[in-house]
Amino acid sequence: MDCNKTKHAYHFNITEVIDGKIQEVMNFNFGGHHDLAQLAKKAEAKEGLSDKHAKELVVGLRLLHHVLKKNPDNELFRDFAPALQAFKKALKEKGDC
Prior knowledge:
Layout: E1 8-18, E2 21-32, H1 36-47, H2 51-70, H3 80-93
Antiparallel strand pairs: 1-2
């Protein structure tokens, strides 16, 4: 999906609105060679997703892939990892790379 190997760094700040007040619930840094904004635009255009759903898909997949990659021996992911790899492969085959 993304051929560019330039390192990208992101900061996620998750907030929740409770009784009209915004409260931070978690924040973390994330990085890699994928341009998340570019991938979301591709997903929106090529997969017919809304802007919001394309962004959710890309961020969710990248974060989940990262966790599985960093924890390859974790029993929790044993059955799920092959399905995620197959899904990513199918998605990449539709891409430009």
